[in-house]
Design goal:
There is one protein chain. With 431 residues, this protein is α+β, with helices and mostly antiparallel strands. The chain is 17% helix and 28% strand. It contains eleven helices and 24 strands. A hairpin with an 8-residue loop joins strand 20 (355-357) and strand 21 (366-374). Helix 2 (15-24) runs antiparallel to helix 3.
Amino acid sequence: MSEEQVKAVGSGRRDFLRKSFLAAGAALAAPMAARAASQGDINILENPAWTTSLGLPVATNPYGMPSKYESQLLRRESPGLARVGGASVSFAPLQGLFGIITPSGLHFERHHQGWHDIDPSKHRLMVNGSDDSLLQKAKVYTLDELMRLPSVSRIHFIECGANTGLEWGNVAVPTVQYTHGMLSCSEFTGVPLKVLLEDCGVDYKKARYVLAEGADGSSMTRTIPMEMVESGEVFVAYGQNGEMLRPENGYPLRLVVPGVQGVSWVKWLRRIEVGDKPYATKDEAVHYIDLLPSGLHRQYSSIQEAKSVITTPSGGQTLLDKGFYNVSGLAWSGRGKIKQVDVSFDGGINWQTARLEGPIQNKALTRFNTNWVWDGSPAILQSRAIDETGFVQPSYGQLRAVRGTKSIYHNNAIQSWKVVESGEVSNVQVL
Ligand code: MTE
């Protein structure tokens, strides 16, 4: 298109336009011409610089980065959550993500004692038994040795047990990034832990637990029941979304324990011990326990039960206008696949079944979508997940009846987003 033609569209003088106006009749032609002149969108009428010039050469960024126009989509730390950044959380921006895979650079982070970029040539994984009768031969593996072994690649979610933990008592944070952003989903690649244990001659009859230990200064140690390992689901990962793990997520090795709360996914994994009883380490006897209304603490409650959240629209966003919206969100269950997600626009009185975007995978995030025509009046949006075991995500009323309000971990209540006439969306709780 020549410059003259482009200008002509803007001014309504372009030849073919004039012809069509004539054909349509003078009465019609005049208002259309006026509209073309006054409402012409310069972004379609004029050629921008990127259409009329040579772009940047290949490999300008040897490791590609997102567009500079996406610079606000970041993992963020909740102000005041922890006094030391090395013992804090950064939340994934769920409101801006599509599908089910979390870009590695936006994966949430939870460190108890900071993160390191560990030299893989100096990293070792030791496998030993708590006594000689449980494992024939203790071994130490280098990364190269591990990468020669049979590998699996599987998509799984990881959710910190403390996700949504700020909301036990009442609404505490405004956006889905902070209510639900201790959640991510990646394709992990690595060696099933049972391959390593069998390589070392494990006796499954005697060895009923493993202890996983990280190489950071936090002495992160967690007990994992042997049934999970024997099922083949637990693996020692080095890959994440097609590349090596990111340092923040455990480079060069982390344990993947599908369906189990994030704390058991030990990062910078350096040792696996097989034993015959739970280890009751500090991060399972004192921390990561659930205070029940009776005053008792529940320990070893590690499975992340079915949960879902609408990510768009969500708290802090504003609807543009009345009319059509694709309401989109995420559902997951630590017990298997998601079977159904229901969505309500009136705070849980009426429900409709959402579309699940396949393939629906075991212990992975599942994206759901549903159509909504907003009539401009106040609404309360909710989603409710049902997993393949038939478990139905509870309301806040149902969850608090069993768990009270003083817990930190395992809050899987139905999330509510309130929409007011102005289109503003905010976090509310509905019992
Ligand atoms: N492993 C070690 N060695 N040190 C840690 O601080 N944090 C745990 C777990 N594994 C942690 C660890 C917790 S509480 C969670 S929720 C997940 O890692 C977070 O994983 P991410 O930082 O990759 O999101």
